[in-house]
Design brief:
- The complex is a heterodimer.
- By secondary structure, chain A is an alpha+beta fold.
- Chain A has 2 helices and 4 strands.
- In chain A, the strands form 2 sheets. A two-stranded antiparallel sheet of chain A has the order 1-4.
- In chain B, the strands form 4 sheets. A 6-stranded mixed beta sheet of chain B has the order 10-12-11-14-15-16, with helices on both faces. A 5-stranded mixed beta sheet of chain B has the order 5-6-8-7-13.
- By secondary structure, chain B is an alpha/beta fold.
- Classes of the chains: A alpha+beta, B alpha/beta.
- The interface between A and B is medium-sized, with 15 and 22 residues.
Amino acid sequence: MKKKGWKEIPIGGLIDKGGTAAEYKTGDWRTFRPVRDEKKCIHCLLCWMYCPDSSILVKDKKMTGFDYEHCKGCGICASICPVKCIKMDKE
Amino acid sequence: MNKVVALTGDQAAAEAMRQIEPDVVAAYPITPQTEIVMNFAQYVADGRVQTEMIPVESEHSAMSACVGAAASGARTMTATSANGLALMWEIVYIAASTRLPIVMPVVNRALSGPINIHCDHSDTMGARDSGWLQVYCENNQEVYENVIMAVKIAEHKDILLPVMVCQDGFITSHAVEGVKPYEDKRVKDFVGEYRIQHSLLDVDRPVTYGPLDLQDYYFEHKRQQAEAVKNSLKVIPHIFAEFKKHFGVEYDFIETYKMDDADIAIIALSSTAGTAKVVVDELRAEGKKAGLLRPRFFRPFPKEMLVQALKGLKAVAIMDRSESFSGRGGPLFAEMRSALLDEADRPLTVNYIYGLGGRDIDTKQIKSVYTDLEKIAAENKVKHLINYLGVRGEK
């Protein structure tokens, strides 16, 4: 994303629309990466409920993976998983 | 014609606030707060204004509540003084950098310690780099009118900066003077209605105020602030013109008093300028070419006008009612010297730090400064650059 000059941005640090967090990639903050064992996953979606950053990808009520561009590796998904199918691997 | 009424500086500010009738006033109700808030709270209690008054538990909370209210789009005011402003500090910067047009009368009083409650400018001069605009008032009428004007200045779409309207503690804030308030309707017509462009409470068009702003954009936002303050020098004259059209009273960034043919002059803020005018009159009666220059605005700093007003003078004394501990004089002195540095033909300058902690400044002391200036002009030499006027133990 090309950074804008001071004349091109709203004043006062205002963000003048919603949903812009998706544009800000925070995945490189991560030290540990969540990795799922697909065979063990029961698609209870507790990880989706608990993820503080909407980084659990879900399609048709099935857990499909992680949004690694935004996941910061907090490990809450691994901790909450009832069947322990998510492990945290060092990046 | 408007009636002249007897008001203290505090009451003059509160009267202006009553007429402006802001949507929100969040203020700390106990000392170091002044009677501005006490009087305004009475107006709220008596049902004379519909303002939402939020009495908070500290000045830090007062400015925090103002930030929230202003971001929602409410016309927002508070008032403070001395250590109250110091406690607000963190949020004072946030209000300015978030570009919220909050108007805050400030009663200039010394910052402790040792503990002191009397007049000097250490409180607002400390806040000079916070990004707020600062107006310094000589008398109660100016307090009244500047509070009204400050609303228009702060909210102007090409400015959008908070404004401090400063008056001298006790000397102005507690002294009764004749003030001519305008009719309520005229004031309301002048300030008009305030409409924010992006309200924090507009759920249909959601916005974020105060996000994290790191190495990638913080600098750009500071650059915008610098531009806004600089640009306010061009915009504020339109508001002066509007004020004149509406109320028939002329304002400018500076006031000059008998400066046209002056050889020597004092530069002073606020009420001290009133005292100096008496001395100028006395010296003029003796045939001495003395003048007075009073910056009304310290932010924006009206450099060109100040420099222009000093053209042809031989010696100028810059009076500071606060100490910056730089060893190079007070804040007004430092900025005036810097402003004059580009001028080939500039007067000799000398600094007087005076009146700290409410130490009285009288005509005799001011006369002594003009006497010093006569000597400096005659000898074309400044012997003592930084002087402490009225302190015991000097010389």
